[in-house]
Amino acid sequence: MSTTRPAAAPSGRRTSWPVLLCWLAVALDGYDLVVLGAVIPTLAETQALGFTPASLTTAATLGLVGVGIGAVSVGPLTDRYGRRITLISSIALFSVLTLAVAVAPSAEVFIVLRFLAGLGLGACLPTALTFMSEHAPQGRSGSAMTRMMTGYHVGAVLTALLAMWVIPNWGWEAMFVIGGVAGLLVVPVMWVKLPESDAFLAAERSRERVRSSEVVRGRFLLVSAGIWAASFCGLLLVYGLNTWLPVIMGEAGYSLDAGLGLLLTLNVGAVIGLIVAGAIADARGNKPTVLLWFAVAGVLLALLSIKMQSTVLVYAAVLFAGIFVFSAQVLVYAFTSHLYPARIRGTALGMAAGVGRIGAIVGPFLGGALVTAGVAYPWGFYVFAAAAAVAFLALLAVPAHPVEEEPAV
Questions:
Q1: pTM for the full model?
Q2: Architecture label for domain 214-396
Q3: pLDDT (tens digit, 9 = 90+) per residue, 358-402?
Q4: Where are the domains of the chain?
Q5: 14-205 falls under which CATH superfamily?
Q6: In 52-62, which positions are buried (b, 16+ CB within 10 angstroms) versus exposed (e)?
Q7: Of 93, 213, 265, 331, which has the fewest CB atoms closer than 10 Å, so is most exposed?
Q8: Which tens digits make up the pLDDT trace of 246-301?
Q9: Residue in 8, 227, 224 with CA at minimum distance from that of residue 132
Q10: Which one, of 120, 22, 29, lies nearest residue 66 by Cα?
């Protein structure tokens, strides 16, 4: 049905509905980033559903694994059946399963439902990114995608604030009810207001068909390898810093309150960076901008290993680190959408997001290992700076302009 709906309006009559709806889809991702962390203290303290520290770790890990599998798997679906129906279906799946988490009878069922919900949630981000890159006016896809990703951080911050009021008054289950209901409220609005992508409809009319293996064949092989390495390192930084920055700064001698304030500052910087980075990428080009962003991120992370006496200087350094670290990953997505043709763009973005989710698991694990070893400060910052350097080097090998497909034999 999705392929028979009217295409997105031409740029002169372009509506704001797709922008708002894709932003909301990404905000749901941000909600899920925080919701489990918000309820884990309650689950651990009350031993609800029979949870133990080990099973809580399993729940957190398998949820992220589900998200990664969903991101990798959705690409061929969105390229075959359309951006619209895939995005709507993934949000519906995630929402229903998130509601089910609230009534899970045991820790084992809770974990399984989190994994399955992750499949739907993981499909949301690459599909929304694909749609937004194709809906944006020509030459402005970078800023369109980075602005959309502000929803991720807004959703995360609002969820943390919401949890402070909801959990004491309504219990941990209410957090999952809120997330599920929010998604289900978005679905009918999307069904009515979200058009199909022009680029997908054009590819559909030409009867082009895609195989997921095409993103690693011929001239796309080197491109995909570089993008995947950068995406892995980018999300390693995002999740590693979000998880362990307060602890690392505590080991450096800063107070716990200062560490939490620096974490908030890091995320404020992320929103600023998303707004600025997209505009620069549109004006100066995707490759030069993403290279600059990873290079500066690496330098700033290395500088954080130096103990600073001035509080203002510390907060300024963390703010600028947030500006460059977090938006660098989104610039990888914008660069990906620029390099691949429309008929395999969804697959390419899905694979980039899926490989990146592996980095999202490795980052917190690596930070935890350094904390356990007692060397998180300063080595945590050195390791994170090295990840930014690897991303920079990987993207050096990627061409700056769209890759031309090899002619059929």
A1: 0.77
A2: Up-down Bundle (1.20)
A3: 888 888 888 888 888 888 888 889 999 999 999 999 999 888 787
A4: 14-205, 214-396
A5: MFS general substrate transporter like domains (1.20.1250.20)
A6: eeebbebbbbb
A7: 213
A8: 777 777 777 655 665 776 787 788 888 888 888 888 888 889 999 999 999 999 99
A9: 8
A10: 120
